[in-house]
Specification:
mainly alpha
Length: 78
């Protein structure tokens, strides 16, 4: 997964423009609630081919942190 693909998923999930999504954007600022995190976990899992725990997503603060988390999951899956 690329950062661009991650931004596309987030823009669709939170109904915002990709240009609004900076590395320091907080998921909370996007209005992420529990249902959003469940859906996001599913979408990320589908995109990278591994199960994503929404509880771990709830611990993530910013998009940069989310990107590092996705990269770690991809590395673990290899």
């Amino acid at each position: 997964m690329t950062q661009q693909e991650l931004r596309e998923i987030l823009a669709e999930q939170f109904s915002c423009d990709e240009e609004e999504l900076a590395g320091d954007t907080a998921l909370a600022d996007l209005g992420a609630d529990h249902e959003d995190l469940v859906e996001l976990a599913w979408q990320l899992g589908e995109a990278i081919g591994v199960e994503v725990d929404e509880d771990r997503l709830a611990e993530i603060g910013t998009l940069d942190e989310l990107w590092r988390f996705v990269r770690e999951l991809e590395e673990e899956a290899e």
